[in-house]
Automatic annotation (TrEMBL):
SUPFAM superfamilies to which the protein is assigned, alphabetical: Winged helix' DNA-binding domain (SSF46785)
Species this chain originates from: Pseudomonas amygdali pv. lachrymans (Pseudomonas syringae pv. lachrymans)
InterPro entries referenced in this protein's UniProt entry, alphabetically: ArsR-like_HTH, HTH_ArsR_DNA-bd_dom, HTH_Metal-responsive_Reg, WH-like_DNA-bd_sf, WH_DNA-bd_sf
Domain HTH arsR-type: 2-97
GO term, biological process aspect, one: response to lead ion
Highest taxon of source: Bacteria
Protein name per UniProt: ArsR family transcriptional regulator
Gene Ontology molecular function, alphabetical: cadmium ion sensor activity; DNA binding; DNA-binding transcription factor activity; lead ion binding
Length: 227
């Protein structure tokens, strides 16, 4: 990229950040979580029609990406580099971003079922732990199980071959609506929930989709997954 092109690119990115409504949206996403278009519009104190234009500008400059899940559209920062740049700018202003505060009931927020897999704080931590341990590798929008993952999951009692042969997606990042971060969906997500129930790490509520993390589960999850 030549000097003139670099200057123009910098000006375009700076212009996208400079608008007060867009800067409020970006700061709201600094915690790494995703937020709905409606939430971001409310935070920026603008209408939905105006927000769509702002989202388009931010996406055009590579500052945010859009995730579609069901009827909802979520936005999050594109990568860590964007977050670092915003943090550096906030240092100049001597202000910090306001942290995200979920309003989900605590029982549902800790652990719950999301169709046939686990969601909530516990599930998000499990997702992050499996990626960090190298049991899962990203492949486009899905995950594949690594050789280490196959060996480790089989040792836990999960029949990986049977899981892989199911006529459905093996594993993917399912955006958690309370944590606004991904947990594991797909056949592997269902197998992990089945394992957690079988080992008594979580128990079902009779009249709710909330799951209770048991004392046995606290120790088991920490020992096996480090969460």
């Amino acid at each position: 990229m030549d000097v003139e092109a670099a200057d123009l690119s910098l000006a375009a990115v700076a212009g996208a950040i400079a608008d007060p409504a867009r800067s409020r949206m970006l700061c709201a996403l600094l915690d790494g979580r995703a937020r709905t278009a409606t939430e971001l519009a409310a935070l920026a104190d603008i209408g939905a029609s105006s927000a769509s234009g702002h989202f388009a500008r931010l996406r055009e400059q590579g500052l945010v990406e859009m995730l579609v899940q069901g009827r909802h559209r979520y936005y999050r920062l594109t990568n860590a580099q964007v977050a670092q740049a915003l943090e550096a700018l906030l240092l100049l202003t001597q202000h910090s971003a306001v942290p995200f505060k979920p309003n989900t009931p605590s029982a549902l927020r800790q652990a719950r079922t999301c169709y046939d897999h686990c969601a909530g704080e516990v599930a998000v931590k499990l997702h992050d732990a499996l990626l960090k341990a190298g049991w899962l590798n990203e492949q486009g929008k899905d995950y594949v199980i690594s050789e280490r993952g196959v060996e480790s999951l089989n040792a836990l009692g999960i029949d990986v071959d049977a899981v892989c042969q199911q006529r459905r997606r093996l594993a993917y990042a399912c955006l958690d609506w309370s944590e606004r971060a991904p947990h594991i969906g797909g056949a592997l997500g269902a197998a992990l929930l089945e394992l957690m129930l079988k080992r008594g790490w979580v128990s079902r509520h009779l009249d709710s989709r909330a799951l209770k993390l048991t004392a046995k589960g606290v120790g088991g999850m920490a020992k096996v997954f480090g969460v």
